[in-house]
Amino acid sequence: MTYVVIDNCIACKYTDCVEVCPVDCFYEGENFLVIHPDECIDCGVCEPECPADAIRPDTEPGLESWVELNRKYAEVWPVITQRREPLPDAPDRDGEADKLSKYFSEKPGEGS
Ligand code: SF4
Ligand code: F3S
């Protein structure tokens, strides 16, 4: 299994999660992070760190497409290991529905 980043990270990107990952398996897009499913060791420490409640174990039903999206972009975006400031609109976007279709960007992040 793996943990996976889901919709509510998009356009928030709080990045608290990256500081606690023991294997540095978060990858950064312009407005979203992903977890590499083959690198995650399922420790679970990142899940409670996310202020947007956007990290889940893939044992929850219905997350298959999110696992594949995490895998796809973990292969092309740069690794992120240090916390950044959240995106400026994070408080306004937190909890919005359908952020994938509204805001998702395929562009890579800055890397760290
Ligand atoms: Fe990293 Fe553990 Fe979270 Fe997987 S579950 S992304 S290994 S902190
Ligand atoms: Fe995203 Fe939550 Fe990490 S909003 S960047 S998964 S702390």
Unreliable stretches:
none
The average pLDDT is: 97
The termini sit apart by: 26 Å
The level-1 CATH class: Alpha Beta
Largest sheet: 2 strands, antiparallel
Shape descriptor: globular
**Overall helicity:** 10-25%
Proportion of β residues?
5-15%
Task: List the secondary-structure elements in sequence, H or E.
Answer: EEEEHHH
CATH topology: Alpha-Beta Plaits
Question: Could you walk me through the main structural features you see in this protein, from its secondary elements to its overall organization?
Answer:
With 112 residues, the chain is α+β, with helices and mostly antiparallel strands. The chain contains three helices and four strands. The strands form two sheets. Strands 1-4 form a two-stranded antiparallel sheet. Strands 2-3 form a two-stranded antiparallel ribbon. The termini are far apart. The mean pLDDT is 97. It binds iron/sulfur cluster and FE3-S4 cluster (F3S). FE3-S4 cluster binds next to loops.
Please describe the structure with a list of short key phrases separated by commas or semicolons.
single chain; 112 residues; alpha+beta; Alpha-Beta Plaits; two-stranded antiparallel sheet; two-stranded antiparallel ribbon; 3 helices; 4 strands; 18% helix; globular; binds iron/sulfur cluster; binds FE3-S4 cluster
Task: List the SSEs and their pairings.
Blueprint: E1 3-5, E2 26-28, E3 33-35, E4 55-57, H1 64-74, H2 90-93, H3 99-103
Antiparallel strand pairs: 1-4, 2-3
The protein binds iron/sulfur cluster and FE3-S4 cluster.
